[in-house]
Protein 1
Amino acid sequence: NAGVMQNPRHLVRRRGQEARLRCSPMKGHSHVYWYRQLPEEGLKFMVYLQKENIIDESGMPKERFSAEFPKEGPSILRIQQVVRGDSAAYFCASSPMDRGLIETQYFGPGTRLLVL
Amino acid sequence: GQSLEQPSEVTAVEGAIVQINCTYQTSGFYGLSWYQQHDGGAPTFLSYNALDGLEETGRFSSFLSRSDSYGYLLLQELQMKDSASYFCAVRALESGAGSYQLTFGKGTKLSVIP
């Protein structure tokens, strides 16, 4: 059973470009969470999605950031017009159901975004 | 909102026992989770406590005291591979709709030395 997959693992962008981060949850999981982690910091919740629905995006900046989880295909975290402050590790996690197992999340390897 | 406090660094000797504490402040509370993260790696779920007491899983145990808003992770028979960062996390019930957010502490960097 493949784990959570994220690609790319490393992404370099210049200021003003767009970054697209992809996440495929574990097989059988329909709940996806995105987190951002700065060096020496904990993970910060960004958004929680189910298939075709954004359930909670309260941790996501209002501008330039968007997320989707289409019926088919991976979840996408999109950052438009990147700035240097967006440089961080972005982790995706999945769980098989809501409420009952939110505390047990399976994380992908992360995408390290570097904005030059 | 929620806040969690845990020590930033701990050093322990191989074969010893180490305890990593976590205190939390939340407006409501479901339970306390622990995650391990090696440098450059992904967080890995270790344990979850919803009720008071000690939960044991092999060399790792986790404890919760809801009345004290306190928990700890206990690592026994330390091995070099246990060197990693350890995060406590809570899902707290915010006013209004239930919360789907896990809030993480800043992590405790454990260094195991020979």
Note: The mean pLDDT of chain A is 91.
Protein 2
Amino acid sequence: DGGITQSPKYLFRKEGQNVTLSCEQNLNHDAMYWYRQDPGQGLRLIYYSQIVNDFQKGDIAEGYSVSREKKESFPLTVTSAQKNPTAFYLCASRTDFNYGYTFGSGTRLTVV
Amino acid sequence: AQSVTQLGSHVSVSEGALVLLRCNYSSSVPPYLFWYVQYPNQGLQLLLKYTTGATLVKGINGFEAEFKKSETSFHLTKPSAHMSDAAEYFCAVSDPPSSGGGADGLTFGKGTHLIIQP
């Protein structure tokens, strides 16, 4: 079955470390997105990509970086510059066919 | 710029009662509108969406929503609540591609936590 796979499901990071969250899709979708979710805040857009080798900053890009070397993959790196990285991170992709978004099951990042 | 307001961060209803979750949006063009449900530590599942056509949209699990342009609303309803409906619900908006928008994804409300009382 087609879908989006996010890994790992839980991730612990020490202060000052960079960590990379994986997002892989086999839906053949062009557009991919990273959202951050905090309690009571809804989902906020970090980065998005419409095509391979191209991506744009979202509303809260500071302290994050991404790459899009393959259509299937859109990894997110949380850098040490991100002041408050503890959150739930969701990856999504979109098809233009019926404007359908598919979400992954998320990665919960905790700074220890 | 778009925005979404969900009235009530927590809504509590009795099992079997009507569910009404409110969503109002702000957009410069007629938008695409979405309702998603999220269970703890999981991703988002689409309940229903409005793009064009009929303004009353039926979704999964007995939910429906009506797009009211004059009221800039897209409230979610279900006639009879079930215990399994307890979850977080998000309303989201996007500019349609026909208006040159939508590439930057969805704008979400802050969510409504639905509690079902036995």
Note: The mean pLDDT of chain A is 93.
